[in-house]
């Protein structure tokens, strides 16, 4: 085994092979700090050639590989298991923006590029890369692609899959597939790109990507609307789509309890209304014409919704600072819930038209089974993705509640299945949901996934124990 590590040091340099426990610690613990894996080393290659060389060494030695980007995942997909046999292959050094093509509206990047840096690079060239999520300051584009991340712009721009034109991948045999083609049409056989996106590193290691850029909007406007029910929020979504079309780029649902948690733990952040309402929607318009055009469209939408009593109140941000303040409320929900204590998270999707029914029925089932629980429900209403989180009753010790996590998950995920939804909308399966997914996917689907895994990674060295 020492010979294996010596060969790794020769391949990428001794300073990039980390074996000291203290130095490895941050690579082995998950983002929520509830699980710590073990590894014989952390390997930090600096190029696709070095990644390929390391994979070939791992194949020869039979060493499992856990690929890792920013390690911001929530389903234990980017940390190794407890065996200590695996190596963590961190792509953090591979952070170059290789090329920007303004005519083709594409950017070619290393997989280790931080998402926020990609956004900034696009902005500096008067372009937009629209993927946006809470961890954008530390997550990497390789991790985003490996989990097919969603975020707040899916309604207009789609998931990460829709934002990618080509990939560069190191296969489980240590070969390099260069699919970095910036083509929007390429009908020449199986789409390998889509196979690797969302595979969570179980079929190969994404090392580079060609991603789509868009013209930077002339204006971006934000509004917060208050209403009584989720059905009213869905009605507002229909109105917004009819009146605003593709200009509607964000539509986020938040319950009153979400805002109460934010105000409790971050007193400077509070809803700008004189009284509370059961539900809120944060919506965003991005207009390619002018701020005046966008404002007229938004004011017409809000005025009509108020007149029809779809909503009870609304505020439109009059400046970038006010817009940022509204988005800060949304983005601090997860942080506030963490400050409140341990909780049980669910990343689910159901058909948009059924979201109101799902919340109503599932809330009732949980309340009957677990009296006093507090529901923290928010998410991307425009694409059917809810973060349907459960906090324990005020008088129940958090650890006692967490011991019943399986029961809570069963109620929620069974309900999701009845509504023809998915138990993972944008976080992936990782190790956390690997066994549970077997209850909800058909035997045919699981068999086909297994056939693909066996064909591409016959030694099962790529991120073992994840997804399958």
UniProtKB/TrEMBL annotation:
Domain FAD-binding PCMH-type, chain residue ranges per copy: 35-216
**Top-rank lineage group of the source organism:** Bacteria
Identify the keywords attached in UniProt to this record, alphabetized.
FAD, Flavoprotein
UniProt cross-references to SUPFAM superfamilies, sorted A to Z: FAD-binding/transporter-associated domain-like, FAD-linked oxidases, C-terminal domain
Tell me any Pfam family this protein matches. Answer: FAD-oxidase_C
Question: Is the keyword Flavoprotein in the record?
Answer: yes
Q: Does the keyword Protease apply?
A: no
As for family, the record states: Belongs to the FAD-binding oxidoreductase/transferase type 4 family.
What name does this protein carry?
A: D-lactate dehydrogenase (Cytochrome)
Organism of provenance: Noviherbaspirillum suwonense
Specify the taxonomic lineage. Bacteria, Pseudomonadati, Pseudomonadota, Betaproteobacteria, Burkholderiales
